[in-house]
Batch of 2 targets.
Target 1
Amino acid sequence: MRQSWLQIDGLNLDQAGRCQHYHQATDIAALWCSQCQRYYACYHCHDALCTHRFVPASRQSLAVMCGNCRYRMTVAQYHTGAYPNCQAAFNPRCKRHDTLYFKPDE
């Protein structure tokens, strides 16, 4: 069941949290900004909407949310390639941004 209170912020979002920057079918990962304490479609959206740069989340926190089902997960769960709740696949190229979205191993 979709929990509508789990909001994704971004620019020109669709229902699955795809934004104007990343809008392929598998671009449904929302990322947690540690400073804002909110999920954003991508770091470009965050930086356009906020007065500070995106602050990476802890790898042990619920740093990623599926835009499809709004399931929140750790980075380890996210790195499996599909969301544990709805099995939707995510864009594997997102791993290129790991250092932007997640703090180094603690």
Note: The longest strand covers residues 29-33.
Target 2
Amino acid sequence: MTEPGEDAGSRDSGHDGHSRHGGEGTARRTVLGAATVGATALRLPSAAAMSPAAAGPAQSGPARPPGPARHRPTEQPPSRELRAMLREIDPRRVEATVRKLVSFGTRHTLSAQDDPVRGIGAARDWLLAELRRRAQASGGRMTVELQSYVQQPAPRVPVATRITNVVATLRGSVTPDRIYVISGHYDSRNSDPMNATGDAPGADDDASGVAVVLELARVFATRRPAATLVFAAVAGEEQGLYGAGHMARTYRGRQADVQGMFTNDIVGSPTAEDGSRDPYTIRLFAEGVPTAETPEQAEVRRSVGGENDSPSRQLARFVRDTAENDATGMRVRVIFRRDRYLRSGDHIPFLQQAYPAGRFTEPAENYAHQHQDVRMVDGKQYGDLPEFCDFGFITRVARVNAAALWSLAHAPGTPRGAKIRTTALGNSTELAWERGPEPDLAGYEVVWRETTEPEWTHVIPAGNVARHAVGLSKDNVFFGIRAFNHSGLRSPVAFCTPQP
């Protein structure tokens, strides 16, 4: 933590969504009646409340997992394969990772890089060995590297300092150029951000996030995701997001197609400062107005709307659609904000490079257990110690990440070029987009909602085409496009913007 400085459950009438080939010149049309326009297409599911057993072991007291949630027609239930993967995520391994990282005493970015038992160098070398061990199960598909650069003197970096990310890349088997990144930062700090020698255990901030990354790397290494997945433990976060910044700039320099990035930062405990607990909720921060928005894009947004429809917002909606269910046992509370007040995390450098990104953080932070010297004051323990972590909770957070990542990797990529054609005035809307490159692409769906709704409320099958006309006025509602494949997996939504 860095301080300041399948399936759609309710569809509109229209053509079926089965695969039918159609080029750019082929348009299909859905005609909607007035009664359909007024409906919200939302209802409660008939499923029973989520079972506590589905949430896995936890030190969570009497609280219960979430019951039936408000139905979203864009939801995607987990497959049998995904459920099996989520059951493999092991709280004992999560705990072991957190305790091992704490054992290095301090992982401050400016601490020793050549001490074999204490400091950030020792943590770096252990993480490298652990990820290499996980990669052995991949049959050569996962590669592990140290990604380093020398940060010249800057705020909180008084002398030139080598900053090293530990990165495992699991190459996709179908569309390897499409990339999704999950990260946690392995550096730590205590009360003084410049104290590189004192103890800084960093159990919650952010050994917890690194534990999520390592456990997912282990589970995913034996699988063959269609797209490429990257598991990163980054450094320099507490000094100014330096490691993540270098990583994001490196991807942008390669023109890499990073279609989603998640940082897990402070995901270790559901207990707030007042002792209240929310053990089945994880927050996901997602920006509205894009950080990297150009002046031209800003002018379009001011003209037609879209403040709630950035790529990062669509990514967050996708996480809820795929990871808020009985297989994870968690609620995903999407926060319509880039990050917490006047604070920042490792997703922000990716946003600065125009990559969709979000931040997972526990439901309510306990500030006595982050950025604090380890000490006892009037009987109260301060310090970011492992005894304040809930390893069952971290395990469930890992399941949320895994459900979203696996679904992203196996669904088609987010459609490109989603446009509303505006060459002529009228009370219907013609949409157009670019066909994706996936060999198992089966077709597309139009989603729409009233401008006052925070979630997509209607889904219209459009077929395997690149154009579709809808009997709704573009002046009254928002439109998006999502792709689906022959397995029934849906992509994140692409928000439609005007095309003259």
Note: The two ends are 43 Å apart (CA to CA).
